[in-house]
Amino acid sequence: GRFSDCRNWTDYMYESATGGQTLVVGSAQQTIAATAPHKRCTPNSAWQSKGKAFRYANYAEGGACAGNQRSMQGKLGLGTFKDQVGRFRGDVPSVNVRGESFLIFVWFGANDLYTDGQKANDMPGAAAKIMKRRGEIVQILNNAGATTPGDSTRFVFMGMGLPTSAARYQNKLDRAYKRLQNNEIHLKRMNIKRLWKSKEQIVKDLFDARIEALNMLAAGALLFNDRLRDLTRSPDLFVDMQSYLNEEAITSMMEHYDMLSGVEPKGWSKMHLSAKDYNEIMEGVKVPLSTSDEAHPTDRVYKYMWEGAIAPALRQAGVTFGHFA
User: Fold this and answer.
1) Cα 260 vs. chain centroid, distance in angstroms?
2) Number of H helices, E strands in the chain
3) Which residue, of 3, 74, 122, 191, is most buried by count of CB atoms within 10 Å of its CB?
4) CA nearest 321: which of 16, 7, 12, 8?
5) 52 three-state secondary structure
6) Is 167 exposed, middle or buried (0-12, 13-18, 19+ CB in 10 A)?
7) Do the Cβ atoms of 167 and 175 come closer than 8 Å?
8) In this predicted model, what pLDDT tens digit does every residue of 275-300 receive, in sequence order?
9) What gap in Å lies between CA 67 and CA 79, rounded to an integer?
């Protein structure tokens, strides 16, 4: 459930906070068992060792949207931030959080735009929904007696990367460009409206349509990021992931983290490797940017997201928890 070939960025955060402990262990079943206590805020979600302690609860789920789903596919298959806040509301009374501070990470938007197919102009509304949920979380914590935002409870909002940083969309563009060069038409793209046009014109129209669709996705991501940044108020943080996932930054990341462009071979992403085994087996091996489904980053990209973007932003803001400082 991590949408990676091993860890995601929250696993790297957990390792930093625990001084090197990991939730990605021996087998898939053992990893699921180790992770289970941290999927909800309950007495079992606490971690402590040698005078260090924190609660870790990760409500993230694959496909969740910031706002209400618009498409039939989304309504049938995607959860929402509102659903997650509802579960949090139900869980908090089981834990004595009086006087405790909270650091709440919020990273939404991609499923609204890419999976649910919302229009670019709808994306600022998704950012506004995130802030509405923020207010609900604040009220939940206030009612439970936790410290209030402005003291030591803070939110960290992450922006979206642009579609060109994802292998799925880059590969679609590459395939469209190849068909343009070879004057080829993908059969499923044919329809009655195109029969009167020349083959060359059809191929050109299809390529232009691909470019336009990609530009609209990029516009949606930019509008979402701008609105979310504008709505973020101190002491909350906004991490501009777009700037860490642009072409220049990815080129630098690939060199520093020993990575390749492209996707992993089919089947790689379905194998389970513990964090320890992954580190040992992949040492000195150049790893592609994307998992074999073309849709998700690999372990080292997530490591970069944590080490290169999120952790520095937290340190600059003076955030500490567990061994992380």
Assistant:
1) 20
2) 13, 7
3) 74
4) 16
5) strand
6) buried
7) no
8) 999 999 999 999 999 998 888 899 99
9) 9
From first CA to last CA, the distance across the chain in angstroms is 28
119/122 Cα distance (integer angstroms) = 5
pLDDT digits (tens, 9 = 90+) for 205-247: 776 777 788 888 889 999 999 999 999 999 999 999 999 998 8
Tell me the per-residue pLDDT of 154-191, one tens digit each, with 9 for 90 and over.
999 999 988 877 666 666 666 666 665 666 655 445 55
Q: Pairing mode, if any, of strands 237-239 and 259-263?
A: unpaired
Question: The tokens of 46 are what?
Answer: 């606490």
- And the tokens for 299? 């372990």
- For 108, the 3-state DSSP assignment is coil
The contacts of residue 30 (CB under 8 Å, 6+ apart) are none
Alpha-carbon distance 147 to 157, whole Å?
Answer: 19
- Nearest CA to 115 out of 59, 66, 73 is that of 73
